[in-house]
Amino acid sequence: MPPKDNPKIFAPACPLPLRDYPTVTLAHGAGGALTKRLVDEMFAPLFKSRELNRMHDGAVFDTPERRFAFTTDSYVVKPLFFPGGDIGCLAVYGAVNDLAMCGAKPLHLSLGLIIEEGLPMEILWRIAQSIAYACDRAAVNIVTGDTKVVDRGKGDGVFINTSGVGVVMTAHNIDATAIRHGDAVILSGDIGRHGVAVLSAREHLDFETNILSDCAPLSDPVLALLEDDLDIHCLRDLTRGGLATALIEISDKSGLDINIREAEISVDGRVKGAAELLGLDPLYIANEGRFIIILPAHQAPRALSILRSIGVSKSSGVIGAVAVSEGGKGEVICETALGQHRVLDLLIGDQLPRIC
Amino acid sequence: MKFVDEYRDQQAAKRLADEIAKTVSHRWTLMEVCGGQTHAIMKYGIDQLLPDNLELLHGPGCPVCVTPAEIIDQAIEIADAPNVILCSFGDMMRVPGTHTSLNGAKASGADVRIVYSPLDAVEIATRAPEKQVVFLAIGFETTAPTTAMAVHRAKKLGLQNFSMLISHVRVPPALEALLTSPGPKIDAFLAAGHVCAIMGFTEYFPISRKHQVPIVVTGFEPIDILQGILMAVRQLEEGRADVENQYARVVNERGNQQAQAIMACVFENTSQVWRGIGALSKSGLKLTREYEAFDARARFNLGASRKEETSASVCVSGKVLRGVKKPIDCPAFGRKCTPEHPLGATMVSSEGACAAYFRYSRKRD
After folding, report:
1. Residues in A touching B359 (Cβ below 8 Å)
2. Residues of B in contact with A34 (CB under 8 A)
3. Strand order in the sheet with A67-75
4. Which of A18, B7, B141, B344 could join B317 in a cystine, given CB atoms 3.0 to 4.6 angstroms apart?
């Protein structure tokens, strides 16, 4: 316990970060500006890891023979079941997709379950079956696991943590710092389905929709792109915080601007309707089966024909391009429907309470 | 998407902007009343499409922004009491009271919950009979009918554990106040379409006539707003001062009679303090005698003190709400005051003018 017991070592060199927040708030876990501050100001300086500092979806590390990718994520979605998915398949696809975004073929997952006392066994059974099905679909195995049960009232039914390892299928570095001026930005489909599906299933929210979550494994399209030897610079799945947050993180890390056109970004009419009604911006709504690909513009047509041949990415399209930043600091600039331009910013917290 | 895409059409917007530029021959100042309109203006860059001699002032139509800090303080006091669940709209959570916000109270252990409708709070009360459930009821005439419905339902269900801390406000007295108080001259108003969907617009006829000011009931999409501006500018150029309805696909003159009936049954007008504007007579709503048992102020012995807003900070949100200042005129804007650390409610709410400027006004140039 060095921090508390040894003030000599700790206190002078490491003042408590985030002094403006005496307590942790929900916004610290929402994936926006406050989550970034928590990681940047508290964890990254303490853990001092080159891999962590890349702030990618997973870490890539070399062994004498191969390069591996490693990732972890926790799932606290409410409700446990929503149209098109549930917390079980989400936990599998989440880890699989994080590995895919590193250019890796997913191999093995760990599964940690924190279950609340009183959870009906039938619910746990349905979740376990969903996990098994998702593993089959994504061609991964659960190779280790852990189960804890907490007192009633200390958890929302069940929390899941998954970690995953995969073999990296490319010699290139796939991360935000690899993007270049002139690169094309491809989006793998329409956005906002997962967030709206989860919202519609929440109790106390009186709206109904037949929108299904887009949750799906993304390793097939990624591996197909890599097999074709395309020079992929960056991949990112658009989970919490949506498309806008993913792009902002990439531009911030790379120091380059990303220009996107709102008109090119496809949003299903039902998602648009729900978003209008609830006052949400689809650019910030969570997805669980969409990703962006940033690669040299001349390779975009080839990438598109590969992506469009695979179900999960069949509606892929180019939504924008990377450019040298005029301000020197990378920003995401969105051309609005009226042809005006605005800079996209990280949200402070959730658009709505906890989606996933 | 029908009823949305056609109102965001770039060519149509350009045609309207050209028409506005052709029509304007004098310098005119228009105020859009509703914060939703302010956000659309900033989000789509509508202000950039307008001629230089046409100025848009942002009005007080942000329910979160005009809620006095005292109400937040009272809500926190209630939430801190034992066995209480305080329910509120999400927008209220981060608004600073005198010392902290509802989010702060929640992080310190109070049971504060976000609901999407006051009826959800009634539902929570029926499921938790051992708790006192309090709904923080804010908003303009648009949200007041559902608040009224919630009280009505609670009474019907005989709920003993449900009450409301009410800070509802009405638009017409605020327009009167803006027209009679010192400050920038407002040549015309774009009235808030959704408020009029409930209330109709007969209340605006005497205001328009008395002050010789055009009032155009206007929607929230870019094309709506540009059309509203064009209609207002035409009136000004022709020397007319009428009440016109741009938003006819949603609003009719008499409004939603059913909603008005339930409001009339549950509420009566009362004096109300507006953050940044002060107390305005008949500008708020209180429960009628028949429903007064559901008043949280009485249930929690809060009293009905109506102290004026005092603000020691540099925040100019009061002036922003009256159209006297623009967000960028504030020395704290974007520096000491950001959406993460808001000094005033106008930086917090999704309808606040400062939040709109912060989020949307950073342009490429």
Report:
1. 345
2. 340
3. A59-62, A67-75, A158-168, A104-116, A141-150
4. B344
Residue A68 host element (H or E)? strand A67-75
User: Of all helices (H) and strands (E), which one includes residue B278?
Assistant: strand B278-287
Mean pLDDT of A286-299: 97
Residues in chain A within 8 Å Cβ distance of B363: 340-343
Q: A338 and chain B: CB distance < 8 Å anywhere?
A: yes
**Pick from A124-133, A199-208, A280-289: least confident:** A199-208
Q: Which domains does chain A possess?
A: 2-168 (3.30.1330.10), 176-344 (3.90.650.10)
User: Is the minimum CB–CB distance between B334 and chain A shorter than 8 Å?
Assistant: no
**Would you call A273 an interface residue with chain B, using a CB distance cutoff of 8 Å?**
yes
Closest alpha carbon to B90 in B68, B120, B69: B120
Q: Which of A24, A276, A336 sits opposite B44 (nearest CB)?
A: A336
Please identify which residue in the block is written with the tokens 């020397």.
B239
Q: Contact A272/B4, CB-based, under 8 Å? A: yes
- Block residue for tokens 């994080």: A98
Contacts of B123 (CB under 8 A, 6+ apart): A204
**Strands lying side by side in the sheet with B111-114:** B111-114, B84-88, B132-139, B162-168
What residues of chain A lie within 8 A of the CB of B15, using their CB?
A: none
Cis ω for the linkage preceding A282 (within 30 of 0): no
| Separation between Cα atoms, residue A260 and residue A322, nearest integer Å | 9
Length of chain A as a residue count: 356
Look over chain A and give the mean of its residue pLDDT values, rounded to a whole number: 88
Superfamily of domain B5-64+173-245, CATH level 4? HypD, alpha/beta domain 1 (3.40.50.11750)
Q: Do B1 and A272 touch (CB under 8 A)?
A: yes
Q: What is the pLDDT of residues B130-181, one digit of tens each?
A: 999 999 999 999 999 999 999 999 999 999 999 999 999 999 999 999 999 8
**Structure-model confidence comparison of residues B164 and B62, the more confident one:** B164
Shortest CA distance from B361: residue in chain A = A342
Closest chain B residue to A330, measured at CA: B364
B313 pLDDT tier (thresholds 50, 70, 90): low
Query: Does the beta-carbon distance from A272 to B117 stay under 8 Å?
Result: no
Domain B65-170+263-299 coded CATH 3.40.50.11740:
yes
Pairs across A and B, CB distance < 8 A: 74
Query: Strand A81-82 relative to strand A85-86: parallel, antiparallel, unpaired?
Result: antiparallel
User: What pLDDT, on the 0 to 100 scale, is given for residue A353?
Assistant: 36
Sign (positive or negative) of CA dihedral B64, B66, B68, B71? negative
Structure tokens at A284: 């910030």
B 55-94 residues inside an 8 A Cβ radius of A: 90, 94
Find the DSSP H helices in A162-254. Answer: 193-201, 219-227, 242-254
- Using CB atoms, pick whichever of B10, B340, B362 lies closest to residue A337: B10
Q: Does B103 touch chain A (CB under 8 A)?
A: yes
Segments making up each domain of chain B, as ranges: 5-64+173-245, 65-170+263-299, 317-360
CB contacts of B362 in chain A (<8 Å) are 342-343, 345
Peptide bond into A79 cis (omega under 30): yes
State whether the Cα torsion A57-A59-A60-A66 is positive or negative: negative
Let me know: does B224 contact B218? Beta carbons within 8 Å.
yes
